[in-house]
Specification:
Strand content of chain A: under 5%
Number of domains of chain A: 3
Distance between the termini of chain B: 48 Å
Number of helices of chain A: 21
Number of strands of chain A: 3
Distance between the termini of chain A: 64 Å
Largest interface: A-B, 53 and 45 residues
Structural class of chain B: mainly alpha
Shape of chain A: globular
Number of strands of chain B: 1
Structural class of chain A: mainly alpha
Shape of chain B: flat
Oligomer: heterodimer
Order of helices and strands of chain B: HHE
Largest sheet of chain A: 2 strands, antiparallel
Strand content of chain B: under 5%
Helix content of chain A: over 70%
Radius of gyration of chain B: 21 Å
Order of helices and strands of chain A: HHEEHHHHHHHHHHHHHHHHHEHH
Chain lengths: ~550, ~80
């Protein structure tokens, strides 16, 4: 029976070459049908291990389903659908196939029952996402994609070392809950954290994602970091360290986004911020916290895609990315503005949006576990989200001073994708029950109490007041803020250049010296008494035979001695 | 090209008044709505209002401080050193 089951991730990845080959309406149909089919499959597949196999001497389970895997798989397929619709008019023919390979591999990671399958899909994801960045076909995107690939290959190598160690120690490849009790498990942990954009290597995200095309960044926002959230949830739930890693990411994202001028880099830093909430939730590790993490991953993927679609529409219409060159676009792009605002409200967790019903579960879990400091920091961070993504993004792109630009809203296919995701952001907020039934544990949480709505509105609207009070300090300048990527883009690069030039200097000086010595030696030989040159002389045959015999004896003696 | 109602400074002023009135009402509403705080700090009156405001002020101050050290022109990486 097991042979008859299709793998939803492989199905989506297999559609990639087909989409690259098809043209016209058939291509559009395939772009819409492939993710839909993956969603239906995910919905219908029973839970448990569905595929078993043997790889070398190890039992593997390439297809295994649980509640959390179904939730992540569903939202990945939904994301592929929305992103595919949004990218229909993308002239580059590589991008959607690459994105579907990427999305299919992400589904493969969450459906992997063993670490070997997980690793294979993990690396395929790196290939797919690099190709998506490449598809922008600019010099900057090419260079960014190479830096991106380097970091992910490094993370993959660390993960592989960890998996090898784990398999050697336990003899099992199955992916179960792990503890940080051995070097191998620390390596697996580190490999996962690289993809979650955790410190110290978090800069790859804001470096690479904004270099993709107007539609490519939408795909990129969803899969890599959220598969990392899923595997951390499955492997390291309740690891205290993750609470602090998560909180660091939350505030790092806010501070860098506040300083940023490029609208899509603001949203990229905001991804790190949002993943920080999820990582902190995994660290808290209670059922409420893990439910909150899963729910937040689901709603985050939708509103972040919506925000990046609205930013992508602006880029598509104006060709500009910098806040300092944008503004006043609400005049001529009302649909994009409205969708951008819905996404901004959802990421800020306004009541009646998806963020409100998901993020508050993580804060509630911190409160239930009596983590006062964590709860206070999460509340401050929620205020900060409204500040950098909820107001800053829509304000500087669509309002502020009028840039005089009057581009029209994007074409119908792009608008349709935005409307779909805007609808979902609000629908999940108004009617959270379907999302709650998908969660890994039973939900006994009611987001809509009068006190919760009131306190959340106080927190957010007073943050809004703070934004406008200090607005003169937030004036946009054409600047970037140096991040950890400076270490490998400047410091190490300069060190390598210095090293190479020093090596060249030393090597050429050495070569000159050796040449000079050789010349002096030969001239000395030539002057040496006889008129014969050193290499022209011929010795007697008997003398030669003696020398050879001596050497053979010496070799024999050395062989026996050592 | 027709002027949008938001282009009128009077309307923007009205929006501001409405927003400030809403803020005041949100704090006053705390007298009516039964609160259920988790800890001691959030049992204080208007906690979420002033905490949200202060948290944002602090985060912006930290960002400005960090920016004064780490800000560079956005062509920084385009130049070959």
């Amino acid at each position: 029976m097991t042979e008859l089951i299709f793998h939803p991730g492989l199905l989506l990845a297999a559609a990639a070459p087909l989409i690259a080959w098809l043209r016209g309406p058939a291509r559009t149909a395939a772009i819409v049908a492939a993710p839909l089919a993956a969603m239906i499959l995910l919905w219908r597949l029973p839970q448990g291990v569905l595929w078993r196999g043997q790889f070398l001497d190890y039992a593997v389970a390439p297809l295994q389903l649980d509640a959390a895997a179904r939730l992540f798989g569903l939202v990945f397929a939904l994301m592929a659908l929305g992103g595919g619709m949004f990218a229909l008019r993308q002239p580059n023919r590589l991008e959607i196939p690459a994105a579907y390979l990427y999305a299919g591999s992400a589904i493969g990671v969450v459906l992997a029952g063993d670490l070997i399958t997980l690793f294979v899909f993990w690396e395929l994801m790196a290939v797919g996402s690099t190709l998506v960045i490449w598809a922008a076909a600019t010099h900057a995107s090419y260079r960014a994609s190479i830096r991106y690939l380097m970091i992910h290959l490094l993370g993959g190598a660390v993960l592989f070392a960890g998996i090898t160690g784990h398999v050697a120690q336990t003899g099992s490849t199955l992916f179960t809950a792990l503890t940080l009790d051995s070097a191998a498990h620390w390596l697996i942990f580190a490999g996962f954290l690289v993809n979650a954009a955790a410190p110290p290597l978090s800069a790859w995200l804001s470096d690479a994602y904004p270099e993709a095309s107007w539609s490519g960044t939408v795909f990129l926002s969803a899969f890599t970091t959220k598969t990392a959230v899923y595997v951390l949830m499955r492997g390291f739930a309740g690891t205290d360290l993750l609470v602090w890693v998560g909180l660091f990411m939350v505030f790092y994202g806010i501070v860098y986004a506040l300083l940023e001028n490029d609208m899509r880099r603001i949203l990229a830093y905001s991804i790190v911020n949002q993943v920080g909430f999820m990582v902190a939730g995994i660290g808290i590790g209670t059922e409420m916290a893990l439910n909150g993490t899963a729910a937040h991953a689901f709603s985050h993927i939708l509103y972040k895609a919506l925000l990046l679609m609205s930013a992508g529409s602006v880029l598509y219409a104006t060709g500009r990315r910098k806040c300092s060159e944008l503004g006043g676009l609400f005049h001529s792009m009302p649909a994009t503005t409205a969708c951008g605002i819905v996404g901004a409200l959802a990421i800020s967790a306004f009541p009646l949006t998806s963020g409100f019903v998901s993020k508050s579960m993580i804060a509630q879990a911190a409160a239930d576990s009596h983590l006062v400091t964590v709860w206070l920091l999460l509340a401050a961070a929620s205020a900060g989200v409204f500040l950098h993504a909820g107001i800053k993004f829509p304000w500087f792109v669509f309002f502020q001073k009028d840039s005089g630009l009057r581009p029209a809203d994007p074409p119908a296919s792009m608008r349709a994708a935005m409307y779909l995701f805007a609808f979902l952001c609000i629908a999940l907020g108004v009617w959270p029950q379907p999302l709650y039934t998908l969660l890994p544990y039973e939900v006994s949480y009611e987001p809509y109490t009068a006190a919760h709505v009131l306190t959340q509105l106080q927190l957010l609207l007073f943050s809004g007041l703070a934004f406008f009070v200090v607005l003169p300090f937030l004036k946009r300048t054409a600047t970037i803020t140096l991040d950890a990527d400076w270490i490998y883009r400047r410091l190490l690069a300069a060190a390598a250049r210095r090293g190479i030039s020093t090596y060249r200097l030393v090597a050429s000086a050495l070569a000159n010296r050796v040449q000079a010595l050789g010349r002096r030696w030969i001239t000395a030989m030539n002057r040496n008494g006889t008129r014969e040159r050193l290499f022209d002389r011929s010795g007697s045959t008997a003398g030669m035979a003696v020398w050879v015999m001596l050497m053979l004896i010496a070799q024999l003696a050395l062989y026996h001695l050592f | 090209m027709s002027r949008h109602w938001l282009d009128d400074a009077r309307n923007v002023k009205r929006l501001w008044r409405g927003f400030l009135a809403l803020l005041v009402m949100l704090v006053i509403a705390e007298l009516v709505v039964e609160p259920h705080p988790h800890f001691q700090p959030d049992a204080l009156f208007g906690f979420h209002a002033w905490y949200g405001f202060l948290a944002c002020a602090v985060m912006i101050a930290i960002a400005k401080l960090l920016g004064s050290v780490l800000k560079r022109s956005d062509t920084y990486y385009d130049r070959t050193p």
